[in-house]
Amino acid sequence: MQTIRITTFLRATLLADAATCAIMGLLMTLFSTSLSNLMALPSPLLFYAGLSLFPFSGFLLYVATRGKTVAPLVWAIVVGNALWTLGGILILPAGWVTPNVFGFCFVLLQSAGVAFLACLELIGLKRSESEAAPAFQRS
User: Fold this and answer.
1) Residue ranges per domain, the chain?
2) Residues 12/63, Cβ–Cβ less than 8 Å
3) Where residue 129 falls among pLDDT bands split at 50, 70, 90?
C-alpha cells in the first residue's frame, strides 16, 4: 500500500469536513424534532443521520492529524462522501421523503456541500500521491 504524506491542503480539507460533520451531527441530533417541523423531513431520519456523522467526523480527525497515511483511507473518505451525496440526491425522487421547500433545499445544499468536500479531498489525495511517487530522472 502506498504511504502518502498528508499535505497542508488535504489536512485542511479533512479538518473542514470533520468540523462540518460534527456541527451538522450536533444540530441534527439535538434539534431533530424542530428541524423536522421546519423542513417536513422525518425526525428519526434527521436524528440517525446526524448520529452517523460523529464516528465519521472522528475518523476524519484521526486521518487529518497523521503526518502520513495510506491512500486507501483517504479513498474511503472520498467514497463515503460520494455515497452520502448520492443518497441525499436519490432520497428525493425516490419518494422516501416528501419535504417542503426548506427540506428540499436542505437536502440538496448539504449534498452539494458534501460533494464539494469530496472533490477537494480527491484533489488533495492526488497531490499527496504525486508527492509520494518516486521521481525518475533520465540520464
Assistant:
1) 3-132
2) no
3) confident
